[in-house]
């Protein structure tokens, strides 16, 4: 696959292989296209906090992974400048959570994304907004 879709697939494969937290978390990278990413996770016992609900850090990390995939999907290294995160509802053991990142602005040096975290049925669990700085270097790097 060539062109923008091919670059997005290279980013998906590279992050899936090299981001160690993906495996530790048990996250699945489902889809990456230019400016978009979808990542899923089944909440299990290891994701629960002392209140017996999904730890906020797990939800943030899942959203951040989708953010990283979408923002790097154009083949240019992008790193976060700023994020805001709102918890809307608790996720519990057994929930299927999905983080979808959508590009809302793509500039020469910065880009902004909205990331929605939902559970089965489309119920919103959390919202994230993030801005990245876009460097003058390719992503993924040559292996």
Short description:
With about 140 residues, this protein is α+β, with helices and mostly antiparallel strands. Helices cover about 25% and strands about 45% of the residues.
Write up this protein.
This protein has a six-stranded antiparallel β-sheet. The radius of gyration is 15 Å and the shape is globular. It is built from three helices and six strands. The protein is α+β, with helices and mostly antiparallel strands and 143 residues long. It has one domain: Hotdog Thioesterase (Thiol Ester Dehydrase, Chain A, Roll).
Distance between the termini: 19 Å
Q: How many domains, as an integer?
A: 1
Instruction: State the major sheet.
Output: 6 strands, antiparallel
Put simply, the count of helices is: 3
Please name the fourth-level CATH homologous superfamily.
Answer: Hotdog Thioesterase
Q: Note poorly predicted spans.
A: none
Strand content is 35-45%
Which of globular, elongated, flat, extended, rod-shaped describes the shape?
globular
Tell me the series of helices and strands, N- to C-terminal: HHEEHEEEE
**Major sheet strand order:** 1-2-4-5-6-3
Number of strands: 6
């Amino acid at each position: 696959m060539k062109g923008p879709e091919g670059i997005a697939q290279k980013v998906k494969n590279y992050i899936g292989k090299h981001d160690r937290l993906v495996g530790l978390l048990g996250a699945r990278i489902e889809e990456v296209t230019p400016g978009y990413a979808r990542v899923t996770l089944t909440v299990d016992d290891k994701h629960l906090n002392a209140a017996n609900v999904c730890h906020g850090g797990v939800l943030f990390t899942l959203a951040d992974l989708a953010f990283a995939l979408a923002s790097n999907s154009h083949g240019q290294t992008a790193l976060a400048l700023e994020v805001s995160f709102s918890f809307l509802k608790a996720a519990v053991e057994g929930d299927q959570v999905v983080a979808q990142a959508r590009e809302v602005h793509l500039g020469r040096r910065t880009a902004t994304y909205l990331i929605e975290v939902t559970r089965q049925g489309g119920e919103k669990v959390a919202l994230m907004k993030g801005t990245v700085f876009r460097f003058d270097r390719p992503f993924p790097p040559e292996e």
